[in-house]
Write a structure and sequence with these properties.
This protein is α/β, with parallel strands linked by helices. It folds into six domains: about 1-110, PriA, 3(prime) DNA-binding domain (GIY-YIG endonuclease, 3-Layer(aba) Sandwich); about 120-195, no CATH class; about 215-395, Rossmann fold (3-Layer(aba) Sandwich), CATH 3.40.50.300; about 405-450 and about 515-650, Rossmann fold (3-Layer(aba) Sandwich), CATH 3.40.50.300; about 450-515, no CATH class; about 660-750, Ribosomal protein S10 (Alpha-Beta Plaits), CATH 3.30.70.600. The chain has 25 helices and 31 strands. The strands form seven sheets. It has a seven-stranded parallel sheet, with helices on both faces. A six-stranded parallel sheet has the order 16-26-25-17-24-23, sandwiched between helices. A five-stranded antiparallel sheet has the order 2-1-4-3-5, with no helix packed on it. Helix 19 (about 545-555) links the parallel strand 23 (about 535) and strand 24 (about 560-565). Helix 4 packs across helix 5 and helix 11 packs parallel to helix 12. The longest helix has 21 residues, at about 670-690. It is globular. It starts with a strand and ends in a 6-residue tail after the last strand. It binds adenosine-5'-diphosphate and zinc ion (ZN). Zinc ion (ZN) binds near residues 468, 489, 491, 492 and 494.
């Protein structure tokens, strides 16, 4: 017996399946998708790998006897059963072609961490060494990194948490934890974990409402598509409906039909922790058939959920981006809710988009792909226009109140100091009215912290991070009893104390400019001392249950105001909210890249859509300086089509996706000259390849330039951009150079049609 094994952790140079023979005693136990240990090169220890194929006898017969006797044998089985399915192996092949990753990097992305390591159920935990000492450190601002603070806050009321969970929740790396262990803040211990059955969440079965005509029409078309074969073509639909128009209800009822027909269903959402309501709604319809996958699951929970899906016990999977890889069988439908959200695109290798993977899987299963959005991405809307997907529309809101009214508040001329520069008089009046009627409000300010910049009024110097080319953001220390502030780098987490005088000119003229969630919270508390403010941003949601706890305070009316960053704009359905305030709209609409308008348009409409969801009419107040902004006007008119036309024309003119494709290669290194040289070398090799192969002639190569964030975490950053109409050719061209040029000390990242241009 001969098997093909792809080595785990191989770089692309060794990234091909290698042949191994199988000792007789293992033959019976071996299946495709299992992990095995194999000898490789001069390594002493066995190298782990995935069995990707077992050769048929006829194929083995072709192999010469000499070659057979040269083959090395598999040393051991690392897993008793397959950890990846055949489908996942096929996906990995596709991903390798598209995303500059190795075969095993693709597979590693698909597996929950627990399954990709050998045996054992010991889990590494961490806890604080001395809670009181840590409390004191927090209060006196003794930590030098915000990452250290997040870890401490996370553990302060816990006996200990799994290391993997701490890393995910506090968004820190191993090295941060190691530093904390070295500083005797943290200690690591192991726990023998028992595999417990999944917690049975109590749920009450809720009956589905009768659909409105527009919903019914969409459902009928979709049901029909589910029943008929696509004959090898993708069955893709785009459900465009304003917030509250009943899209989710269509997913749910279509899902029910598919379950009855014996199929399984995948529902992807941008970030599941933010939408406990969605989770509840799905559970209340489907009960125990549901497996929910999200980033805050413990490893055991994740493992169990994965097993239930693989066994076919859970026929509905709900989860964020990576859930698209769940080993669900017999898929009838994949839903991408809020398909325009950037979280569907992975920012690390492999840089896939969940919709791409969903398309591949839908083709393999002959399943329907349903994208849903109130503000479709330009990409998806253009696909519908081109006939590559079918557009379904829900034009009306379900609730009696209809669309909210939108008032644009011109902030020009408002004195920059004082509370009304944050909460305008008109918004204040609206809030006063709402509270007098016992209604609630939501306030969006998409910037966390206290102030946006600290600037010297005398020389104009802006305080920046010593390791990154970015301005520092001032934050209040919430643990301190006195009002104390610190400066924080939002990119590397470093903390700085505010200098007594300007480091550039020495004058005592440092001033804070702009505001973030913390300052808005203060302003609201001053204006409405009795209302109660629930603040939701990255800083208040480190703990596992914190999202749910904050939303609970709002749902039970303990807080009249829900204030937060974009987190609050998504999916929430609070019928008692009648006023939505959107602060600093200028900042939402102007960003560094070609998607800025799309993001701003969708975020503002999304947030506005939180008002007036029940029977009470909603009122939205948008505060802005540039009241003439074209996108803003389209938002106020609720005119998606006008927005699409403008944005599409702009992207066509400048050659941006989906009308042209972009490949960005980002180089980063500790030495500036080395980094630049590496980028130039890559550029030269691309040019040579272009001269050699005619097929690349139509692609454009732009010169090497500094990245917009030219230094980050002490690394210099350069980039080069390629453009062209054929995405596959761009990928091929870049891979040709990427696979041949060694990396050395300068690392590089390649992204096709990126979501972040920084
Ligand atoms: P969307 O996903 O487009 O934001 P939802 O599906 O959440 O819209 O619907 C908005 C609200 O209307 C929800 O509270 C939902 O329960 C309710 N709803 C949806 N469809 C119907 C219907 N056909 N009849 C009554 N209520 C409905
Ligand atoms: Zn920094």
């Amino acid at each position: 017996m001969i098997v093909k094994v792809a080595l785990s952790g191989a770089n692309r140079a060794f990234d091909q399946p290698f042949d191994y023979c199988v000792p007789v005693e293992l033959e019976k136990k071996l299946q495709v998708g299992q992990m095995v240990g194999v000898p490789f090169g001069h390594r002493k220890k066995a190298t782990p790998g995935y069995v990707v194929a077992i050769l048929e006898d006829s194929e083995v017969a072709d192999t010469s006897q000499d070659k057979k006797s040269e083959l090395k044998a598999i040393e051991s089985l690392l897993t008793k059963t397959p950890v990846v399915t055949n489908e996942q192996l096929r996906l990995a092949v596709e991903m390798r072609k598209r995303y500059f990753c190795s075969f095993s990097q693709a597979l590693d992305t698909m597996l929950p961490p627990r399954i990709s390591v050998k045996g054992g159920v010991k889990t590494r935990y961490a806890r604080l060494v001395d809670r009181d000492a840590v409390l004191e450190m927090l209060e006196t601002d003794a930590f030098r990194s915000q990452g250290h603070i997040r870890v401490s806050e996370l553990l302060i009321d816990q006996e200990g948490l799994p290391v993997a969970e701490i890393k995910a929740a506090a968004d820190v790396t191993d090295s941060v934890l190691q530093t904390l262990v070295k500083n005797e803040v943290l200690e690591i211990f192991s726990v023998e974990e028992e595999r417990k059955a999944p917690e049975v969440v109590p749920y009450e079965k809720v009956k589905a409402p009768a659909l409105r005509p527009a919903q019914k029409k969409a459902l009928d078309i979709l049901e029909d598509a589910c029943r008929t074969s696509g004959e090898g073509r993708l069955k893709e639909y785009l459900l465009h409906g304003v917030t509250g128009s009943g899209k989710t209800e269509v997913y749910l009822q279509l899902g029910e039909k598919l379950l009855q027909a014996g199929k399984s269903v995948m529902v992807l959402v941008p970030e599941i922790a933010l939408t406990p309501q969605m989770e509840q709604r799905i559970r209340s319809r489907f009960g125990l058939d549901v497996a929910i996958l999200h980033s805050r699951l413990t490893l055991t929970e994740r493992y169990e959920a994965w097993q239930r899906i693989a066994r076919g016990d859970a026929k509905i999977v709900v989860g964020a981006r990576s859930a698209v890889f769940a080993p669900l069988k017999n898929i009838g439908l994949i839903v991408l809710d809020e398909e325009h959200e950037a979280t569907y695109k992975s920012g690390i290798k492999p840089r896939y988009h969940a919709a791409d993977i969903a398309r591949l899987r839908c083709l393999m299963h002959d399943a329907v792909l349903l994208l849903g959005s109130a503000t479709p991405s330009v990409e998806s809307y253009q696909r519908a226009r081109d006939g590559r997907s079918t557009l379904l529309t829900l034009p009306e809101r379900i609730g009696r109140a209809g669309r909210p009214t939108i008032t644009l508040v011109d902030m020009k001329g408002v004195p920059k100091k004082g509370i009304h520069a944050i909460i305008s008089e008109s918004l204040q009046d609206a809030l006063t009215d709402a509270f007098s009627r016992d209604e609630q409000a939501m306030i969006l300010i998409n910037r966390r912290g206290h102030a946006r910049l600290t600037i010297c009024q005398s020389c104009g110097h802006v305080l920046t991070c010593g390791s990154c080319e970015v301005a520092l953001i001032s934050h209040l220390n919430v643990h301190s009893k006195v009002q104390s502030k610190r400066l924080l780098c939002h990119h590397c987490d470093r903390i700085y104390q505010k200098p007594p005088a300007c480091p550039s000119c020495g004058e005592d003229q440092l001033q804070e400019v702009g505001y973030g969630t913390q300052q808005v919270e203060d302003a609201l508390n001053t204006l409405f001392p009795a209302a109660g403010v629930a603040r939701m941003d990255q800083d208040t949601t480190v703990r596992r249950q914190s999202h749910a706890a904050i939303l609970e305070r709002f749902a039970t009316d303990e807080a009249k105001i829900l204030l937060g960053t974009q987190m609050i704009a998504k999916g929430h359905d609070f019928p008692n909210v009648t006023v939505v305030g959107i602060l600093s709209a200028d900042q939402l609409l102007n960003g560094d890249d070609f998607r800025a308008a799309e993001r701003g348009f969708s975020l503002i409409l999304q947030a506005a859509g939180r008002a007036g969801r029940g029977s009470l009419p909603g009122h939205v107040y948008i505060q802005a300086y540039n009241t003439e902004d074209a996108t803003l006007k389209q938002v106020i008119a609720h005119d998606y089509d006008a927005f699409f036309e403008t944005d599409a024309a702009y992207r066509k003119r400048l050659g941006y996706p989906p009308y042209s494709h972009l490949g960005i290669v980002l180089f980063s290194g500790h030495k500036e000259d080395e980094t630049k040289k590496a980028a130039e070398q890559f550029h030269k090799l691309l040019q040579e390849a272009k001269a050699r192969y005619e097929k690349y002639a139509g692609l454009t190569l732009l010169p090497v330039a500094k990245a917009p964030l030219s230094r980050l975490r002490n690394r210099y950053r350069y980039r080069l951009i390629v453009k062209g109409e054929n995405r596959q050719l761009i990928t091929e061209w870049l891979a040709l150079v990427d696979d041949t040029m060694p990396t050395g000390l300068v690392s590089r990242a390649i992204d096709i049609d990126p979501y972040s241009m920084l």
